[in-house]
């Protein structure tokens, strides 16, 4: 059977393509933005990827067209599919019907930490010999790819609340029917499709309705937005994380999060790893609790995390030149920005921390976080803001709130030039964007090389 995927280079749809190919489908796809790392993964899997959205990409007609949620009416390929009456389906529905059937789905949801927690969980299960399948919106260092079918019933999925497709406005995660569900946190995000937090909570309520009574819901303690969603109905046992009355406790933790001890009932074990920040400790606790639900001991899970290699674009060290370290971080929300910078600050002490920010998520591009963005950058000694020409609001107000510690540029070359002229050995440069940022990471490293 031949499927053609529209929007194949997105992290979700690219992962879906890898799963389909592994399952034996003939797979092709189209995308307007064909670039690494997903394009490299697809090429390595022998999947034909075509640039742009043209009718001829769908000739001869595939057996099924799988629509990415970036597709909209007016797209030439979408219009051709509808006019020709070609069979089509959303990515999440195709996944549910072809991959997740009869699987024990472990779903990780929440505003922040989904990719990292899913990666941790998949690795813990792999380390325990459970050979899970997984589909993750990033590339876990321990696997080197974003998706795999696996050889057992267990399947780990990053459960996104974003909408499914132009013809299905439910959140993706309502298709997954998890038996183990993590809700890491819950804040307002995705202002392009949700009017307010209550609208997001409604989708989480729909998700909770799909978890069986013999399953498990795992949440942190005392998060009002999560508690409100659960109060609308929960028919599944629940375990809580990191609170005075929580089922899962943190009994010790280094300030920067590089070492911590987990306690569950009479079981206790320590993690000593390379990741930083309280947010990653929280992610780890959720992953350990989820793995325990399918039979992995606390001790074994902590052993696995000692060997966890992180995820690409999550405070990923891209290189070091003349004692200056350059990191790439997939910043999409003020809370994530703040926790990432605070974790690095706790680790590096008084060494200089320079944050380079491009507001790139749909919500940040709309200016929704204008009042909280400056505060999220407080852990940095210096902030360089990049005003993309496509940004519809001015970053001047953020720069003014930050004062002398910040500067605003409208050219990537100017950002690089300032970093090269002012950086010195011992500095840590964190580039924060959930887009490609014009390849700025390598441009900084190259410029430092030539300085």
Automatic annotation (TrEMBL):
Gene Ontology terms: biological process: cell division; cell wall organization; peptidoglycan biosynthetic process; peptidoglycan turnover; regulation of cell shape
UniProt domain Mur ligase central: residue ranges: 108-291
Gene3D superfamilies linked to this entry: Mur ligase, C-terminal domain, Mur-like, catalytic domain, NAD(P)-binding Rossmann-like Domain
EC number: 6.3.2.45
Protein name as it appears in the record: UDP-N-acetylmuramate--L-alanyl-gamma-D-glutamyl-meso-2,6-diaminoheptandioate ligase
Residues spanning the membrane: none
NCBIfam families: mpl
The protein's annotated pathway: Cell wall biogenesis; peptidoglycan recycling
Every Mur ligase C-terminal domain range: 313-435
Domain Mur ligase N-terminal catalytic per the UniProt entry, residue ranges: 2-98
Function: Reutilizes the intact tripeptide L-alanyl-gamma-D-glutamyl-meso-diaminopimelate by linking it to UDP-N-acetylmuramate.
Cofactor: Mg(2+)
Binding sites annotated in the UniProt record for ATP: 110-116
Keywords annotated in UniProt: ATP-binding, Cell cycle, Cell division, Cell shape, Cell wall biogenesis/degradation, Ligase, Magnesium, Nucleotide-binding, Peptidoglycan synthesis
Catalysed reaction, written as an equation: UDP-N-acetyl-alpha-D-muramate + L-alanyl-gamma-D-glutamyl-meso-2,6-diaminopimelate + ATP = UDP-N-acetyl-alpha-D-muramoyl-L-alanyl-gamma-D-glutamyl-meso-2,6-diaminopimelate + ADP + phosphate + H(+)
An annotated Gene Ontology molecular function: UDP-N-acetylmuramate-L-alanyl-gamma-D-glutamyl-meso-2,6-diaminoheptanedioate ligase activity
Family that this chain belongs to: Belongs to the MurCDEF family. Mpl subfamily.
Pfam family name, one: Mur_ligase
